[in-house]
Amino acid sequence: MSRPVTQLDKSDVLTGLFASWDALDGLLSGLSEEQWRTPTPLPGWDVHAVVAHIIGTESALSGVPTPDVDVSGLAHIRNDFGATNECWVRHLRGEPGAELHQRFLAVTRDRRKRLTDMSEDDWLAVTPTPAGPDSYGRFMRVRVFDCWMHEHDIRDGLGLPASEAELVSPAARLALDEMAASMGYVVGKLGGAPDGSRVAIELTGPLARVIRVVVDGRGQVVDDFGGLEPTATIRVDGLLFTRLAGGRVAGAPVELDGDHEVGARIVEHLNYVI
C-alpha cells in the first residue's frame, strides 16, 4: 500500500522557510573572510561551504544544472546526494564570502517569488523528495529543516548560539515537525524497538514537545498512547535532540526511563539524517 501524501498549508511552510532564510541573512551579514572560513560540525565544511550548499540546492530547484566538478575520492562523501552537494561547494569555493552572501540573497529572492506564485495544485503534487515520493509542500518542509539545521551548524562553528527568542521560531517548529515524521522509522527500524513498544521522546527547553511512537510491525508516530504509559521514555533538550539526529554531536547527556535498553539503542541510532 502506498504512503498517504503529506498535505501541508502552503502559507505556513513558506512563512517558516522565508524566516529561515532571513535568519541566515542576518547571521551572515558582516562576517569577516576569516569567519567565512571557520570550520563547522560538518566534516570538511566551513561556513562558506555550508552556504554554498544551500545556494546549490536552491539553484537546482530553480533548474540550474549541477556544476561539473570531480569530487570522487573525498572521504566525507557517503552517497549521490553528498556528491551533488560537494560539486556546488567546490564550484563556489573561490568566491569571497561577501559575494557568496549576495549570491545567497539573489537565489533565495528568486525562490521566494517562484514559491509564492506556485499554484495549490503544484504545491500538492507528488514529486521526488529526500524523504521519498511526497508532495512538493513536504519537500519544502524538508528545505526548512535543512536550512534551519545549517543555521545552527554555522552558529556552532562561529560560537554564536541562538538566543531563546531566535530559537523559538516558525522554522524551528516546522523543522521539528519534519524530524518527528521520521521518528517511527528511527524507533522501529534503526532503534529496533520490539512490537508493543510505546516510546515517548520528551524534548525539553525552549523547543519542548513530546513525540510518541508505537511499534506494531513497524514504528508509527501517534498523538497519544490511548491512556497507556510509555514503555520507554527518552528525555533530552530539544536543540540537542536535533544535533544528535543530525550527527553533529555524540555522547550527549540523555535521560532514560522505563526500558533503558530499548531507549539507549534508539539514542545510539538517532542519527538518521543523510
From TrEMBL:
One of its GO terms (molecular function) is metal ion binding. Residues 19-155 form the Mycothiol-dependent maleylpyruvate isomerase metal-binding domain. SUPFAM superfamilies: DinB/YfiT-like putative metalloenzymes. InterPro entries: DinB/YfiT-like, Maleyloyr_isom, MDMPI_C-term_domain, MDMPI_metal-binding. Residues 174-264 form the MDMPI C-terminal domain. It holds the Pfam family MDMPI_N. NCBIfam families: maleylpyruvate isomerase family mycothiol-dependent enzyme. This is Mycothiol-dependent maleylpyruvate isomerase metal-binding domain-containing protein.
